[in-house]
Amino acid sequence: MVVLNYVLADEVNVGYHDVENEIVSKVNGEEVKDLKDLVTKIESSKGVRRDRDRSWRQVRAQDPDATAANPRIMTRYRIGADRSDDLK
Question: What are the tens digits of pLDDT across the range 12-66?
């Protein structure tokens, strides 16, 4: 189980701002063990579904537009790295 805290606002992720303090227990039907497992599952997937209140909702992962927006978002919010060394 992993808790997603919030989404940093940008035009590339409009519509995902309700993803706040949500528990992610599965990715594409597979149990998530920890944050490293979540990162691995997302990076190896073309799309990710998350379970919310027993219903499935599609969440895009590995989106080329979002990947391209990462440097801009990180600069805007003064973030030095997109993850800690143990998640690389």
Answer: 888 777 777 777 787 777 888 998 998 898 888 766 555 555 455 556 566 778 8
Residues 6+ apart with CB under 8 A from 55: none
* pTM: predicted TM-score of the whole model, two decimal places: 0.66
In 3D space, the residue among 81, 88, 77, 80 whose CA is nearest the CA of residue 6 turns out to be 77
The CATH number that applies at residue 65 is 3.20.190.20
Positions of E strands within 32-73: 48-52, 55-59
**The pair of three-digit structure tokens given for residue 28, joined into one six-digit string:** 């594409």
- The total domain count for the chain is 1
Print the domain residue range for 64.
2-87
